[in-house]
C-alpha cells in the first residue's frame, strides 16, 4: 500500500526553496524567452528519440541489469557523485580512469573507477568493505591512469569520509544494504529522499539564503532518480510520487540552461566567474590577472545558491511550459536531457563559466 503523504515532502521543500531563491536573487534570472526555447528543444528531442528511462542502462558504465547489486552500485556512486571539476585547464591533466580501452573523466571517471575495482575483485559496492576500508585501499580504487601527469580524484579525503559514514550507517541499521532502505519507503520517493537526508549526513544539501534555510538535496534526489531510471519505474524502482522530484542542482545543467537562455547572470557575476576561471586555469601561479576575492566562490555563497536555486526553478518553468503544450515530461527526464546535452556539446559549454566551488554536495 503506497504511503499517502501529508506534510510537504523533501522535494516540495526543494521546489519551495528554489522559488524563494529565484524571487530574492540579485544576479541570476530565469528569462521566459529562454524557458520557451529550451522547452521547444526538449520536446523536439523527445519526439525524435523518445527519451525515456530506458536510456539509463544503455551506457557502457551503468549496470545493465536492474537488480539488488545495481541498487548498491547506484548508492555508492551517488554517495560520491560530486565535484569532478579539474583544478587545471589542460584536459589531459584531469583525473582520468580507463576501462576497456576507453578513457573517462568527470562523473564517468567515478563510474569507471568503481567498475575497475569490481573487475579487480574489490568489493567496493559492499558496505562491509567500504565502511572500514583504509585510506590506502580507497586511494588505490580511485587511482588515476597516470599519476605523473594527471591530478588525483578531487576531494579524495572527503570521499573516504563519505564511504565510511554511509557504510557504517548501512551496517548498523539496514543490514548493510541500501536496498533495505528503499524497500522500507514503500514506493514513496519523497519518503526515500527524506530517509536518505536523515540517515546519511553527507546528503544534507541544506544552506541559508537571505536569512532562512533552503534545501537543494541534489545527490539525495539523483540517487532516487537513478534507481527509478535503472528499474524503469518497476519493482524496486516503482515510486508513486516521482513527478515531485526536482532537477538536480549540479554544475553542468546550469551551463546548458544558460546556453539556451533559460538562465541569465548579471554582468558583475559573469565577470567574477570568468576571472575565477582564469585564476583557476593558471593555477601554476603565473596569473596574469589579480585573482578575484581570496579563494574561489565559497560553498554556500549567495551567488552559488542563486545559480543552483534558479537552475531548479528554470527546469520547473520548462516542465510547466512542456505540460502546457500538451506534452508530459517530469523534471528528471528534462534534467537527464539537459545534462546529456551539456556533455555532448562540451565545446559550446566551455565558453560558459560556472561557479568553481568544490563541494561534497554536488
Ligand atoms: N543534474 C545532473 N547532474 C548530474 C547528472 C549526472 C549523471 N547522470 C547520468 C547518468 C545516467 C543517466 O544517463 C544520466 O544522464 C552527473 N551529474 C553531476 O554532474 C557533475 C559532473 O559533471 P562532469 O564533471 O562534466 O562529468 C557532478 O556534479 C555530477 O554529480 C545528471 O544526470 N543530472
TrEMBL record:
User: What PANTHER family would the database entry show?
Assistant: QUEUOSINE 5'-PHOSPHATE N-GLYCOSYLASE_HYDROLASE, QUEUOSINE 5'-PHOSPHATE N-GLYCOSYLASE_HYDROLASE-RELATED
- Which UniProt keywords are listed? Hydrolase
As its record notes, the protein acts as a catalyst of: queuosine 5'-phosphate + H2O = queuine + D-ribose 5-phosphate
The record's Pfam families line, in alphabetical order, gives:
Q_salvage
Q: Which family does it belong to?
A: Belongs to the QNG1 protein family.
Matches recorded under InterPro entries: Q_salvage
Which BP terms in the Gene Ontology apply to this protein? tRNA modification
Task: Write one Gene Ontology MF term.
Answer: hydrolase activity
Name of protein: Queuosine 5'-phosphate N-glycosylase/hydrolase
Q: List the EC numbers from the record.
A: 3.2.2.-
What the protein does comes down to: Catalyzes the hydrolysis of queuosine 5'-phosphate, releasing the nucleobase queuine (q). Is required for salvage of queuine from exogenous queuosine (Q) that is imported and then converted to queuosine 5'-phosphate intracellularly.
Amino acid at each position: 500500500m503506497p504511503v499517502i503523504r501529508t506534510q510537504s515532502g523533501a522535494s516540495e521543500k526543494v521546489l519551495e526553496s528554489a522559488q524563494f531563491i529565484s524571487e530574492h536573487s540579485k544576479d541570476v534570472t530565469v528569462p521566459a524567452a529562454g524557458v520557451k526555447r529550451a522547452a521547444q528543444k526538449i520536446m523536439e528531442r523527445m519526439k525524435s528519440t523518445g527519451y525515456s528511462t530506458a536510456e539509463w542502462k544503455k551506457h557502457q558504465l551503468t549496470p545493465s541489469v536492474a537488480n539488488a547489486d545495481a541498487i548498491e552500485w547506484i548508492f555508492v556512486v551517488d554517495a560520491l557523485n560530486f565535484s569532478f571539476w579539474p583544478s587545471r585547464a589542460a584536459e589531459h591533466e584531469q583525473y582520468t580512469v580507463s576501462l576497456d580501452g576507453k578513457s573517462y573523466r568527470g562523473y564517468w571517471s567515478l563510474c569507471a573507477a568503481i567498475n575497475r575495482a569490481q573487475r579487480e575483485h574489490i568489493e567496493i559496492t559492499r558496505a562491509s568493505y567500504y565502511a572500514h576500508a583504509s585510506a590506502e585501499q580507497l586511494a588505490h580504487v580511485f587511482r588515476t591512469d597516470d599519476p605523473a601527469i594527471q591530478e588525483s580524484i578531487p576531494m579524495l579525503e572527503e570521499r573516504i569520509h563519505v564511504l565510511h559514514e554511509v557504510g557504517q550507517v548501512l551496517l548498523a541499521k539496514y543490514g548493510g544494504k541500501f536496498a533495505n532502505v528503499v524497500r522500507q519507503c514503500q514506493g514513496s520517493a519523497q519518503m526515500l529522499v527524506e530517509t536518505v537526508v536523515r540517515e546519511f549526513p553527507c546528503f544534507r544539501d541544506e544552506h541559508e539564503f537571505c536569512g532562512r534555510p533552503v534545501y537543494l538535496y541534489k545527490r539525495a534526489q539523483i540517487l532516487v532518480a537513478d534507481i527509478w531510471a535503472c528499474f524503469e519505474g518497476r519493482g524496486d524502482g516503482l515510486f508513486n510520487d516521482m513527478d515531485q522530484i526536482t532537477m538536480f542542482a549540479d554544475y553542468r545543467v546550469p551551463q546548458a540552461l544558460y546556453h539556451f537562455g533559460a538562465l541569465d547572470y548579471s554582468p558583475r557575476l559573469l565577470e567574477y566567474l570568468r576571472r575565477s576561471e582564469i585564476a583557476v586555469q593558471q593555477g601554476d601561479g603565473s596569473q596574469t590577472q589579480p585573482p578575484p576575492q581570496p579563494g574561489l566562490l565559497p560553498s554556500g555563497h549567495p551567488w552559488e545558491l542563486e545559480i543552483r536555486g534558479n537552475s531548479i526553478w528554470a527546469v520547473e518553468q520548462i516542465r510547466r511550459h512542456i505540460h502546457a503544450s500538451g506534452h508530459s515530461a517530469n523534471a528528471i527526464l528534462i534534467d537527464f536531457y539537459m545534462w546529456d546535452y551539456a556533455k555532448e556539446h562540451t565545446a559550446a559549454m566551455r565558453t560558459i563559466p560556472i561557479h568553481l566551488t568544490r563541494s561534497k554536495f554536488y
